[in-house]
Amino acid sequence: MDQEETVGIAIAQPTLRENMSHYHRFYQPQSTYFFTVVTFRRQKIFVNEDVKDLLKEVIQKVRVNWPFQIEGFVLLPEHLHTIWSLPEGDSNFSERWKLIKANFTREYLKKNDELVRPSNSRMRKGERTVWQRRYWEHLIRDESDFNHHLNYLHYNPVKHGLVTNPKDWPWSTFQRYVKLNWYESEWGASEPNGLMKTCMGE
Ligand code: NI
Predict the structure, then answer these.
(1) What does DSSP assign to residue 118?
(2) Cα(81) to centroid(ligand 1), Å
(3) What is the whole-number distance in angstroms between the Cα of residue 1 and the centre of ligand 1?
(4) 50 belongs to a structural domain
(5) d(Cα 2, Cα 25) in Å, to the nearest integer?
(6) Radius of gyration for the chain, computed over Cα atoms and rounded to the nearest angstrom
(7) Mean pLDDT estimate for the chain
(8) Residue 142: burial class (beta carbons within 10 Å; 0-12, 13-18, 19+)
(9) Which of 9, 26, 33, 64 is deepest in the core (most CB within 10 A)?
(10) Looking at residue 200, what is its pLDDT?
């Protein structure tokens, strides 16, 4: 089965086909990255379902022209963590993020303009902003580094005190990996060893 077809379809819903039982290698040398992206002034904008859906739609649209696989994803109220694999020879994640952020901002502000207060310098320029300008980016070094980041990402809703068990946070790829038998469904009910020792931008 084609990996592009099955792995990258949904960012939050476990939509893997029933017959997909074999074990994929998600880590691809030199093209798999971990990202942390935070909202401007940590505003909790990802609480309404329609805003979460909007982000999902924007990401899917960008992927049409700028393909990448989403190996892991978790959406929290004011930030997200995700792991992408870019096509071979293509390391231009910054253009992808630029498009995702700009497209999301434009659509989001159509409905939520009054909720977003720009910084002083940006206000002078008449800019509105939804995202922190900088984001955390890390090239995954090897399989072990991949596993570490994937675990960090899936444990994140517990880390941030939103749920007590990763399986209870629907806006993540956790269930996708449970279906692949990568995790037991109860994984992360207690803190996995050594998970919090590295900085991952949030
Ligand atoms: Ni986090």
Answers:
(1) P
(2) 7
(3) 32
(4) yes
(5) 12
(6) 17
(7) 83
(8) exposed
(9) 26
(10) 75
How far does the centroid of ligand 1 lie from the alpha carbon of residue 71, in Å?
17
Domain CATH code at residue 118: 3.30.70.1290
Cβ atoms within 10 Å of 163's Cβ, excluding its own: 13
136 CA to middle of ligand 1, Å?
11
pLDDT of 129-165, one tens digit each? 899 999 999 999 999 999 999 999 999 999 999 999 9
Residue 197 lies inside a defined structural domain of this protein: no
Residue 186 domain flag: no
Q: What is the per-residue pLDDT across 14-44, written as a single tens digit (0 to 9) for each?
A: 334 333 434 456 788 889 999 999 999 999 9
Cα–Cα separations (whole angstroms), residue 159 to 44, 63, 156:
17, 29, 5
6 assigned to some structural domain: no
Domain limits at 152? 29-179
* Percent of the chain topping pLDDT 70: 78
Q: Residue 100 has which token pair?
A: 């995702």
| Nearest 10 degrees: Cα torsion 166, 162, 112, 80 | -50
**Taking a C-beta distance cutoff of 8 angstroms, is the pair 70, 82 a contact?**
yes
Tokens of 199: 């900085």
Spacing, Cα 55 to ligand 1 middle (Å): 17
Alpha helices in the chain (DSSP H): 3-7, 49-65, 93-112, 120-124, 143-159, 174-179
pTM of the predicted model, to two decimals? Answer: 0.81
What is the token pair recorded at 89?
């020879």
